[in-house]
Amino acid sequence: MTESGYTIAPIGIIRSELASPEAAPRQGYEGAPEAWLELTAPVAQGLVGITVGDELIVITWLHRARRDVLQVHPRGSLEAPLTGVFATRSPDRPNPVGLHRVSVLEVAGQRLRVASMEAIDGTPVVDIKPFIPAVDRREGVRVPEWVDRL
Amino acid sequence: MTESGYTIAPIGIIRSELASPEAAPRQGYEGAPEAWLELTAPVAQGLVGITVGDELIVITWLHRARRDVLQVHPRGSLEAPLTGVFATRSPDRPNPVGLHRVSVLEVAGQRLRVASMEAIDGTPVVDIKPFIPAVDRREGVRVPEWVDRL
Known about the structure:
homodimer; 3% helix
């Protein structure tokens, strides 16, 4: 490695009724509530073009996650085999980046109201990208056995 | 914001025949070559459970991107309206995180050979996650008008 690290400067923050990781569903489609994404003023013009109904990929920094965990039982189930974190969606991982699929419900200046967001209140936002089916979707993929229990 | 920044410690690096951004396709499905993901030794056990045929989301740090760009013409086309970077997949953005959908072709110790990877040689790897349809896929989404030209 020629670089020892890069600094993420959050572009905003999640405002949600979810106060703790224990209260949060594991994924957005598992009953996650609405949330506000509050962007910082310096990056607000980066939102131009986002409108109600858009599907976005929100990238967060899961600031409450553990960065020293390399293997987990997927979804906390001891019945699932101990698995490398890069083969799971565990929040605990060396760089705890979260990926969230959300729909835009409202655009209010530098704030976006979205559904469904499983990240907790105060989670830093790293990036926002449009969901584009040709890029992000693929049919007929093989999935790990433990995913059937999702 | 209560935090001014977070440090990403790369978990590995991309080894690819693509030497420069000019040589790289815009997305993996647009003719991107195979590449190797070389993980660092300290995180190698995080790969346990990844096997040939798996679909992964690789998260990179696009170290050659510009972080001071907030609006672009999507896909470099002046015919497309000037658009906020958060409404596009431009590599230029405040936190230049790249998302890449790849298939695993070979697992060799702490290295993975994957197809198709549009990131250039030397790109730092931030995270690896399994692609899970229930989480990452959604049907019938609305997409920006300029996406039709993808």
